Amino acid sequence: MKERLYEILNEEKIHEIIPFLKELSNEERKTLVPSIKKMDREISKIVMTKNSYHTAGSVNQHSIIDIASFVCMDKKNFGKNYWSLFRNAEQTEQILEWGCPEWFSDFINESVEAEFTAFNYKDILGWTEKGYVQPKPELLGHHLSNYPAELDRHPETLNIHFWYLCEYPSKSLPFRKEWFPIVQKLIAEKKIERKRFLKECLLASNRNFNKNVTGWFMDAFTSLKPTEEELTELQDDLLAGLASSQSKAVNTILSHLKKIVGVPDFKNDEFSHYLPNLLSSEVKTVVVSSLVLTEKIFQRKKIDPEMLGMALSTAFVSKDDGIQSKAAKIILKYIPASENMIEALSHYSDNILTNVRPLLVKYIEETQPELVAIASEKLSLTTEENAVKVLQNFEDLMFYLPVAMDDPYSQHCDIALAGFIRFAGDVNAESVKLIEPVFLKACKTISKWEVPYLNVLLCNAIINYGLDLMEKYPVPLKNLEKIYHKTKEEEAARESYSNYQKKLGPIENVGADCPARIAFKELAIYTYEKIKSGDKIPLLFTVTHAPCWISPVTLVERLESYQNNNIIPHHLDIQLALQRCALDNTSEAIAETEKRLKGEYKELLLFFFGKNAKPEGKFEHPSWWMTAGITRSPETVFEEFSSFGYDDIPVEFFSGAYKWKTIDNKKNSYYPVDLKIVIPKYHLAKRKEPLFVEYFVAEQKELIEIPALMLCFPNTPANALAKVIKHCLFFSGIAEVYERSLVLNTANALYQIKKPLDEIGYLFLGTIFLDSDKTIRGTAAEIWLEHVSSQTMDNAWLGRVIGLHEKLEWAPVKRLTDLIQQHMLNVSKNHNIALEELISNILLQMDAPVTNLKKILEIYHEVLALNHSEAHKEIIGKLNSWKENSSLKKICSLLLKK
């Protein structure tokens, strides 16, 4: 059988495959499955040519395998191939007539999850008539959504299946432009019931459809122009739709409820139950529409105002001046100052803005309670709370290595490597069995197409370590050879790709396609040699405190081990250790250095820890001293280092002082306002001891790893931040997932480092304050809050960055004002004072009024009132100019009175 199948495949006898399969019994077909899979792998191999690529198999060969797979395999083995076999409809029908698999109906029903299928609604109806498929409503609704044609051919299409479409639509429904006119025509011809369809449109608001599908049903509802009578009759469904998570649905329903607010049967009480959630919405249009509808109820209905009034108090969750003023005016006009109302508003008293409080004097205290000043806490980089785990034995190491493989760019990898050095040799015939699951995970991880580079190096070390153990313990580790052989086969299949980087074999042969990876590979080779040789002197670079810090005292202790054993550290190992050393408190480390170390080690660390203002002693290892100088004082050029030969490296990479500018492209470019940062080009120079930083700033192939690599330079993150700014933040409208992910990971890394910011740190933070991604902006606010609490935030500097961006409207001002209102305002007295300085410096950069300047000024007015301050002298001149603008006149006048 196998030979016959190979013959049909190799000679491309596609006309013979069906007769051949017909002759086989079910058992015979099952036995062919492994061969079919093997043949499929062979013909699916990629063949690279000079200008393109293709699979090894021809079109006919792929068709032969598709048919054989369908006939011989079960559903699990066949997978989710909804495309290839069904492209030839005539051939598919021919197979189904004599050999419809028992799993076919379930397979087709599951096609609603497929991105594409080569069959449609019409095919499904045909298969249903012949008994091949027992369709579920989800299947019919999904495929009918994608087939707006021949609706009158089958009576069940409009009588039954159309309503399945409403309940289980395809994600593609909104993009089928034919459906709108078709639905309107069918309703006009009374082929589908108008009232039922209107109801289905409203039910769509709470059916967890995506926003496009929900929006389609809302637009369909509006386009049918429901009458007042219809809206009244559908009132329960309209109100239920107010609980939707989709703002389009809520806004559409609110607009229709306004049309029937005056009818006698309008359900005021039911609406009041939904009002608190509506007024708590983060979508301003939802809140404003809810307030308008509430006011209309008061205007047109004789009702007990208390229930609606108490619900209305929720509006003061928002710190928007317009929303609070509107809510206050409604309360003042329609709702008496009852005990219940005063109680309801008391819960939001701290949030009510200073210029709104006088309106509500009958309901709340006119003056706002004074906020408490938070005592400043100096952030310590190395505490007991962030000390990393220390492994105790070989068993600990085996249980911890999988954790490190899951998160290679974290302290977990350092913990594992430190344990590897200490305990790799502490293995016996019993404990050696623990390596098998670790080895299997390493092989599975390294076999993936996309593997983080540090994971490649870690997994490679684990695999080579396992292979070494297998030679010593062949019986308990007999499975390792089988696991490794399979992994090696998979890699061999990929090596035909020109861009494939080798992962298996000696660690020296692992691919490294950019300088940063070359540096880590060199460290990996050094580390594995220590493991292999049983050298237990600790690595210098492994962190002692999360996320990336080394205690200065620990660095002294580790260097003492090298000194006592008369061993010179690897140049990259010691450089990385210096770069990661926490320098916020070095007094104890200085004392330990003077007591324990001598010679170059002692002089190096006394300079590094700040005891010696200038470098002293013999400079036997220039790369150590240069790294110490850059890390300790990046802005200082030490004359003593002038002969080291590193003067060909652009000074920006040492100082972090990059030139940048926000540029107006005269509104005629795709990017109307650009953020330009100049990063010099640099190619890795050949020298005896390159600086670690050289590998990082030289040409990079991959950007995605930058946030993790930034943790190698926690004292001087400017080089990493500059790269992310250049590639991901030059334009405020970037919405690609890749860039968003990179910026968010970088922001999180900056938050974790907890160091005072430098010039590029402020540029990065000020820029992400205006980012289009809400999560990124939230992270920026968290950085600001923490740095203000520890008094390490220069708000004047940060304000200048944001002001220079917004002076040219680099990003919508609303992003900034929403962030301030939701995360930064009224956190504490200290934060309000810091916020005043921040906003003042933003405004000082402004010349002509920008879009939404009014909102910044309103927040500034609120902050000044909270701080009992007056507007900055230089800003007063700007306010006198801006008040000529009609939209700014009122707020400028208020600020000038302060």
Automatic annotation (TrEMBL):
Name by which UniProt lists this protein: Uncharacterized protein
Which ranges carry the DUF6493 domain? 2-285
SUPFAM superfamilies hit by this protein? ARM repeat
Q: Which domain of life is it from?
A: Bacteria
DUF7824 domain location, by residue?
383-650
Which residue range or ranges hold the DUF7825 domain?
Answer: 655-897
Q: Which Pfam families does the UniProt record give? A: DUF6493, DUF7824, DUF7825
Q: Which InterPro entries match?
A: ARM-type_fold, DUF6493, DUF7824, DUF7825
